[in-house]
Write a structure and sequence with these properties.
CATH topology: Archaeosine Trna-guanine Transglycosylase, Chain: A, domain 4
Helix content: 10-25%
Strand content: 25-35%
Largest sheet: 4 strands, antiparallel
Strand order of the largest sheet: 1-4-3-2
Shape: globular
Structural class: alpha+beta
Mean pLDDT: 94
Oligomer: single chain
CATH superfamily: Hypothetical protein
Number of domains: 1
Number of helices: 3
Low-confidence stretches: none
Order of helices and strands: HEEEHHE
Length: 93
């Protein structure tokens, strides 16, 4: 999983533990380990949601200022399926 640079410190600190992704199909799997700088993102769950489920609160939990800010990052391809990905960061030992 890739994250915009402005979110990475908050992900490493554990402040951000979810991400909204708009894909054709999931690009990660539950239990998967994905490199991020000095550690890894471990995916805990992938939940299909609707675009209308993206609230201001969910956007802020994901590290964005609001829904429009989140969608500028999440909607960059031709995917139409929306997923809420829950994860945690593990520092490389």
């Amino acid at each position: 999983m890739h994250f915009t640079k402005r979110l990475r410190d908050r992900i490493r600190s554990g402040e951000i533990t979810c991400s909204v992704r708009i894909w054709h199909s999931p690009r990660v799997k539950v239990g998967g380990r994905y490199e991020m700088e000095d550690g890894f993102i471990i995916v805990e769950s992938i939940i299909p949601i609707e675009l209308s489920d993206i609230t201001g609160d969910l956007a802020r939990l994901s590290g964005f200022d609001g829904v429009v800010d989140l969608l500028k990052t999440a909607k960059h391809g031709s995917g139409t399926k929306v997923y809420l990905v829950n994860f945690h960061y593990v520092e490389e030992a």
